[in-house]
Specification:
Largest sheet: 4 strands, mixed
Strand content: 5-15%
Number of helices: 5
CATH architecture: 3-Layer(aba) Sandwich
CATH superfamily: Glutaredoxin
CATH topology: Glutaredoxin
Number of strands: 4
Strand order of the largest sheet: 2-1-3-4
Oligomer: single chain
Number of domains: 1
CATH class: Alpha Beta
Helix content: 25-40%
Length: 148
């Protein structure tokens, strides 16, 4: 299975989704990362403010930062290969592709198509019944109903 490494710029917390003014892009990306993990993908995420040594120890990231500075962050690697750098954060479909998964929107589209193929039972197509709800026509006056 693929390993995805995310090298974030300096954020206030590990996911950047804290504080009063939360960036919606970070919220969506955090959800996408959680989705990846649920698919069994190994994800390592590093925050420059909290784990600067991880940036210094990783030759590819160190070289990227020397060449481009912090504008290269976030940098995302799949099995050691740089797949993305800089903002905006990548989409769930891009992450899925890099991890070797079916893109998330395709999975969703397939599920919708499967649901659409299920025939709906409407009142007019339902078989007539004389079960607990009684006969399909009203009982004659004075006849007790079959309802429970």
């Amino acid at each position: 299975m693929t390993t995805i490494q995310i090298f974030d710029p300096a954020l206030c917390c590990s996911k950047g989704v804290c504080g009063v003014d939360v960036d919606q892009a970070l919220v969506e990306f955090a959800a996408d990362v959680d989705w990846l993990k649920k698919q069994g993908v190994t994800v390592e995420r590093f925050n420059l403010a909290q784990q600067p040594q991880a940036f210094a120890n990783h030759a590819t990231i160190r070289d990227l930062l020397h060449a481009q500075g912090e504008v290269a962050l976030p940098a995302i690697l799949a099995d050691g290969e740089v797949k993305h750098r800089g903002v905006p954060y990548p989409s769930r479909d891009q992450l899925a592709q890099w991890a070797g998964l079916t893109p998330a929107t395709s999975i969703f589209t397939e599920q919708v198509a499967e649901l659409a193929a299920i025939p709906l039972v409407t009142a007019s197509s339902a078989p007539a019944s004389s079960g607990c709800c009684g006969p399909t026509s009203a009982p004659a006056a004075g006849t007790p109903s079959k309802c429970c």
